């Protein structure tokens, strides 16, 4: 990949989370994108968890919940992020994060998680 000297490189670190109840979450590990590009990040769980979550951590700040899916087939709830962000619950296992027109401030760690019962009370 050739990168123009004027390009802004974004790094989105994505990790694999193994949950205590033996559900394994699979995500891509890292992605480097240029400004204005888009990214589609797949999160997949091998269990039957109803709730799925996308979190973001900017610098050393705390984790922020940015998307919450109650169940496949239902609308996804968005928090804290704007129009360039969307998430799609493709089916029970897959929750896709879609960011368009990437901006330098989107550089962060993005975590996906799932749970059988709602963690939102
Ligand atoms: C990602 O979001 C953009 C903007 O809303 C949309 O046009 C595009 O179809 C989405 N891509 C996927 C794979 O959902």
From TrEMBL:
Q: Which PROSITE patterns match?
A: IG_LIKE (PS50835)
Listed GO cellular component terms? plasma membrane
Task: Give the UniProt keywords, A-Z.
Answer: Immunity, Signal
Q: Outline the extent of the Ig-like domain.
A: 5-121
Signal peptide interval? 1-22
Instruction: Give the superkingdom in one word.
Output: Eukaryota
Q: Which GO terms describe its biological process?
A: cell surface receptor signaling pathway; immune system process
Protein name, per record: Ig-like domain-containing protein
In this record, what's one Pfam family? V-set
Q: Which Gene3D superfamilies does the entry mention?
A: Immunoglobulins
């Amino acid at each position: 990949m050739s990168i123009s000297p004027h390009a802004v490189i974004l790094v989105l670190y994505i990790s694999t989370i193994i949950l205590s109840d033996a559900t394994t979450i699979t995500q891509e590990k890292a992605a480097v994108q240029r400004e204005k590009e888009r990214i589609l990040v797949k999160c997949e769980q091998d269990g039957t968890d109803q709730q799925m979550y996308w979190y973001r951590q900017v610098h050393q700040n705390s984790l922020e919940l940015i998307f919450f899916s109650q169940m496949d087939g239902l609308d996804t709830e968005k928090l804290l992020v704007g129009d360039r962000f969307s998430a799609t619950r493709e089916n029970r296992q897959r929750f896709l994060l879609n960011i368009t027109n990437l901006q330098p401030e989107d550089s962060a760690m993005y975590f996906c998680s799932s749970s059988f019962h709602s963690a939102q009370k």
